[in-house]
Amino acid sequence: MKLYFFPRSPNSRKVWATAVALNVDIELQLVNLLTGQQRDPEYLKLNPNGLTPTLEDGNLVLWESNAIMQYVASKRPNSLWPQDDRMRADISRWQCWELAHWGRAVGAVLFERLVKPLALQQEPDPAEIRKGEEAIRRFAQVLDQHLDGRRYLVAETLTLADLSVAPFVAFKDECNLPLQEYQNINRWYAQIEQLEAWKKTTPAPI
């Protein structure tokens, strides 16, 4: 399997961390989003969205990070993507929540504070940052309340749900995300940071 990825991308990291956690052999192919490599014609043949990550496994080409995570995790029995139907439904619920709400909220601030200065040489828009921070607070409250009394998002074990949500929290200090007051989120993320798969997939600063 080959993973086309950009290590600083939250969506790329979640797939990379899944493969590392499960010891699934995967070839990494850098797609440099800062230089626009995702718009190269050859890459667009694989992923017409011009985004990362993309997985290539024989004649299967798969994009959308959470679908890739599920596919990689299906390669062998494991607790990240267990066989129990109810647990899979709950994991999928949090992956859908991340895509529809959490990732979009955090991503709006990441774009302003990180992507625009680095890739576009543009100044952040304070109005867009305020909107993003409002959305982060709204959904952080949901996440924080759910984590109250829980070690992980689903049951008491690490699953794909945690690896889907956590990459966005990883930018809390670098991008000054408004997450300081959410004690349950910070406690939960401190656990994620201790995972060997998380340490191995920590991207180098740009």
Main attributes?
alpha+beta, 206 residues, Glutathione S-transferase Yfyf (Class Pi), Chain A, domain 2, Glutaredoxin, 4-stranded mixed sheet, 2 domains
* Largest sheet report: 4 strands, mixed
Low-confidence stretches: none
| Secondary-structure arrangement, i.e. CATH architecture of the largest domain | Up-down Bundle
Report the top-level CATH class of the largest domain.
Answer: Mainly Alpha
Please indicate the percent range of residues in DSSP E strands (runs of 2 or more): 5-15%
User: How many strands?
Assistant: 4
What is the element string, with H for helices and E for strands? EHEHEEHHHHHH
Summed up, the helix count is 8
**CATH topology annotation of the largest domain:** Glutathione S-transferase Yfyf (Class Pi), Chain A, domain 2
Structural class by secondary-structure content:
alpha+beta
- The tally of domains stands at 2
Brief digest:
This protein has 8 helices and 4 strands, in the order βαβαββαααααα. By secondary structure, it is an alpha+beta fold.
Descriptive account of the structure:
This protein has eight helices and four strands. The chain folds into two domains: 2-73, Glutaredoxin, CATH 3.40.30.10; 85-200, Glutathione S-transferase Yfyf (Class Pi), Chain A, domain 2, CATH 1.20.1050. The protein is globular. It has 206 residues and is α+β, with helices and mostly antiparallel strands. A four-stranded mixed beta sheet has the order 2-1-3-4, covered by helices on one side. 54% of the residues lie in helices and 8% in strands. The relative contact order is 0.15.
